[in-house]
Structures are given as structure tokens and as C-alpha cells.
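TL;DR need C-alpha cells for one chain.
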Amino acid sequence: VDATALHATRAWLTHLRGVGHPDPRPVFVVGLPRSGTTLLERMLASHPAIAGVGEQAFAVEGMRRALRASGGSLAFLASGAVGEAAGWHLHRLEDRVHRLGLDSAARRIVDKMPDNYLMAGWLRAAFPNATIVHCLRDPRDVALSCWLTQFAGVSWSLSLEHIAQRIEQHRRLMQHWRGILDGGFVELRYEEL
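>> reply
TL;DR here they are.
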């Protein structure tokens, strides 16, 4: 979180403005696990013009592709590398729609990977016209729900101390994104949803 806040700045986003893919179809639903991301995706995907593709790891791989093509430096991401990575990411989303047998003419494609909150700056640079939706829930309810849920492969959910640390780091990073994305995402409260 410290490294992200240090390198993913307002100036960094300004430098990358307009180099990503202009397609408005991607919708990224992010937040902590058990914050309502699945509920929201299912609600959105019930609309005939929206395809929900579940949790996809394309954002992380897309950023890695751009970093490899730019010498490994977030500060010096090359415009072409960002555009290529965003195109690759969009193609993966379209392919997932196809493989799931969903409507390929959908006007929105929802990827609800909760951990993409870590990537909100990258997602804004890669898809400047995409919608990013941050799901919020009372942190006490998130903590209890994570503690009671047997997540496969989510080791931090096995310790109350680690859950508390994860929630605090999430809070810090989302505060950072609010400061530099200038309303670049929508926030929904689970309790109101």
C-alpha cells in the first residue's frame, strides 16, 4: 500500500491520461471480500445488456505486461505498453463472455474481482471510460464474515489480526484513490444495496 501510494500519484495518472483503451464496456466491482461484490455483480448481470464474468485476474496480468514492456517501472510506463495491455485485457474479457455463453453484444462486462481495489489507479489508466464500483460494508461485518468463511487460498482470513490489518490497509488505499481519482469510481454501501 505504501509503494502504491508513493508511485501511483495524480501526476502519474495525468501522464497516462488518454493512453488506455477507450471502450466503456468494462465495469470493475471492487472491495473487500464479503462486502457485497458478488451480490452487486449478480444484480447487474440480471440486466439483459450486462454480462457478468465473475472474478478475473486480468487486471494484474495486464499491468504486469505493461511493466515488462516498460522496463519494470511503474513511473515510466510507456503509452504504447498501457494501450497494448488494456487491449489484451479487453480481449480476455470478451473471450470470457464468449466462453460463458453470454451475449457478446452486451453493453457492459462486469468483472467483480474484489482485490482489484489494489489496482484502481491502473484500471483508470488502462480504461479511462470504464466504471469502477467500490463496495463498502461495515468493517466489523466484513471481519466477522471473513472469519466465519472458509476461503480457499485467502490465508489472511484465518487470523483476526491479519483480517484487521487487511481492512486497515484497504481503508488507507481507498482513501488514497479518493484523493487522486477525482470521483473516478462509484461507491455503494452493502447495507443500502
